[in-house]
Write a structure and sequence with these properties.
single chain, 300 residues, alpha+beta, Phosphorylase Kinase, domain 1, Aminoglycoside 3'-phosphotransferase, Chain: A, domain 2, 2 domains, 3-stranded antiparallel sheet, 10 strands
């Protein structure tokens, strides 16, 4: 019996109901399902193989998903099966977003508003730091002889530069999703819901903002719109902080993709994604703006 079948069987109130299990497309780490019981839909995600290697803590995910639901930006948890690392969630009746949809006029502001709502909630169980996660991923690559993009190790001194500059005047950490790619936004016509808390943790808010701007490939005007909607203004220091975190987004998640190429059974070109992300990171590191960002992020 598959995990999804075991979970469905364990929900007592579903046993005599009309149950339909529908596999949903998408998901780079897990398998997603819509389970309809007597006409009422629910969402269930079954973790993929080897996901524990990606530094996903399922207890942390459950705790933070519940906290995000409490603040009104994530779906309600109906049931939790820790033995399967599975949650049964309320099904959100809305549109799964895409980069194109989130690049439409006004969307950067709506994104920032939902993010700010998440960040206003109770603190999450653990912290998230992309610099430390990158170090962990590098150790994993070394231990398992996993290929990294060309030139990756040679640019780690630049990563150290970024962390040093951003540490001069750090921002207080807040509860962050940390993985807001387009598909982790659901638009129900009234609000943007934020889903998938596998990598959630307390973090610098500009990582959240910079990471999602990088995922959407926002231009400078859109980045400033996000910054203004969140902070009330777009100062050079805040923009620089977002820009440097956009680099770190590609540095860290690019390495994640290289590991996924090695361990995942999902049909996706993870290596191509790793190369693309690393290329974007290097382009920004080598840009004329990079030393300006390092200077601005240390200013008041």
């Amino acid at each position: 019996m598959s995990v999804i079948e075991k979970v469905v069987e364990q929900v007592e109130e579903w046993r005599n109901g009309d149950v339909e299990i529908q596999h949903l497309s998408g998901g780079l780490t897990n398998t997603n399902y819509k389970v309809t019981v007597d006409g009422t839909p629910f969402f269930i995600r079954v973790p993929g193989e080897g996901t524990e290697l990606l530094a996903i803590d399922r207890h942390n995910e459950y705790h933070n998903s519940k906290a995000a639901a409490n603040v009104g930006v994530a779906p309600e948890i109906i049931r939790h099966f820790p033995e399967h690392s599975v949650m049964v969630l309320k099904f959100l009746d809305g549109k799964t977003m895409s980069k194109d949809l989130l690049n439409q006029s006004g969307m950067p502001t709506r994104m920032a508003q939902s993010i700010k709502q998440l960040h206003s909630g109770e603190r999450f169980l653990t912290d998230f730091n992309m610099f430390r996660l990158t170090e962990y991923y590098l150790r994993l690559c070394k231990e398992r002889d996993i290929k990294t993009p060309d030139g990756y190790l040679e640019r780690l001194h630049t990563v150290t530069q970024i962390e040093k500059a951003m540490s001069v005047k750090p921002l207080a950490t807040v509860p962050c999703n940390n993985d807001l790619l387009a598909e982790n936004y659901i638009d129900d016509g009234k609000q943007l819901w934020l889903i998938d808390y596998e990598y959630s943790g307390n973090n610098d808010p500009t990582f959240e903002l910079g990471n999602t701007c990088q995922e959407m490939q926002f231009n400078d005007e859109q980045i400033a719109e996000v910054c203004t909607a969140y902070f009330g203004s777009a100062t050079p220091a805040l923009i620089a902080r977002m820009k440097l975190n956009m680099i770190m987004s590609d540095v860290g998640w690019g390495l994640w993709a290289a590991i996924q190429e090695n361990i995942s059974t999902i049909d996706f070109d993870f290596w191509g994604w790793a190369i693309e992300r690393w290329g974007r990171a290097v382009e920004k590191m080598d840009s004329a703006e990079f030393p300006v960002w390092l200077k601005d992020v240390q200013a008041s």
